[in-house]
Amino acid sequence: MSIDKILENNRGWVAEMKATDPDFFNRLADGQKPKYLFIGCSDSRVPASAITGTGPGEMFVHRNIANMVVHTDFNMLSVLQYAVEVLGVEDILVVGHYGCGGVAAAAANKQYGLIDNWLTNIRDVIRVHEMEFLRIKDDGQRLRRLVELNVIEQVRNLAKTNIIQNARKTSKPPRLHGLVYDIKEGLLKNLEVEDNGIGELQHIYGTEAMKHAEEVLESQPGFNPKADKGQLLDEPQKTKKDKKEDKGPHLQKAS
Ligand SMILES: [Zn+2]
């Protein structure tokens, strides 16, 4: 299809929309108030609007290879912050898809160049779920499961962001969902990812992690508030002698 054909299609679409709803474009020009944020794969077979039955103005969209939520990705973080704090979206959908080339590439024992650094985030998902992953003998089934596990981990990654943690202190935090799209059937499957986000990992990823760490420290026998609390925050004043006597981490959970 040439660019001329694309422009012609566009004019046809405008005429069609105006015929059914003369005020359609004026309304959209006034601003947007989408209820959903879609985080999906860039794959051309997974168009956000078409598979969800949403039209212009209804869904804020971020897409990248393999629908990743990477904490150093300022593009994704900017989209997320704007969607949550300004647009006030009610639901965030992380949408993976079976047959994802990015996921397959991450699982293959090959090097692809720059993209390997992006795929490493999916390899981390394999590491976290290695036993389950290795137990699946069928190659196709194993990849399908990896697509699902990747979506589950990306929903957790969303929950780890301070953007979602702060939103959860408000009266209307967005709900997080993990979905997988089946290209062969055209159907979306809800993975029913637990919406408690980071759950039992709150003490690590929570924005109040240091407060928890202090509580753990205070529960240690022989706790000395003056000497021990300073070590929790930073350790610039340590002398060589102190370092020698340092017998290990101070944040271990009291048994
Ligand atoms: Zn994909």
Summarize the structure in words.
This protein has 255 residues and is α/β, with parallel strands linked by helices. It has two domains: 32-197, Carbonic anhydrase (Beta-carbonic Anhydrase, Chain A, 3-Layer(aba) Sandwich), CATH 3.40.1050.10; 209-245, no CATH class. It has 13 helices and five strands. Strands 2-1-3-4-5 form a five-stranded mixed beta sheet. It is globular. The termini are far apart. Residues 233-255 have low confidence and may be disordered. Bound molecules: zinc ion (ZN). Zinc ion binds at residues 41, 43, 66, 97, 100-102.
List the helices and strands and how they pair.
Elements: H1 3-20, H2 24-29, E1 36-41, H3 48-52, E2 59-64, H4 74-87, E3 91-97, H5 101-107, H6 115-128, H7 130-135, H8 139-160, H9 162-167, E4 175-182, E5 187-190, H10 202-205, H11 209-218, H12 225-233, H13 240-245
Parallel strand pairs: 1-2, 1-3, 3-4
Antiparallel strand pairs: 4-5
Helix pairs in contact: 5-6, 11-12
The protein binds zinc ion (ZN).
Zinc ion is lined by residues 41, 43, 66, 97, 100-102.
Short description:
This protein is an alpha/beta fold.
Summarize this structure as a short list of keywords or feature phrases.
2 domains; disordered C terminus; single chain; binds zinc ion; five-stranded mixed sheet; Beta-carbonic Anhydrase, Chain A; 255 residues; alpha/beta; globular
Which parts are unreliable, with pLDDT below 50 for 5 consecutive residues or more?
233-255
Indicate the radius of gyration in whole angstroms.
Answer: 24 Å
Number of domains: 2
Strand arrangement, largest sheet? Answer: 2-1-3-4-5
Task: Report the CATH topology name of the largest domain.
Answer: Beta-carbonic Anhydrase, Chain A
Order of helices and strands: HHEHEHEHHHHHEEHHHH
Average predicted local confidence, pLDDT = 87
- The first-level CATH class of the largest domain is given as Alpha Beta
The ligands found in this model are: zinc ion
Query: What form results from the Cα inertia axes?
Result: globular
| Share of residues in strands | 5-15%
Helix/sheet category: alpha/beta
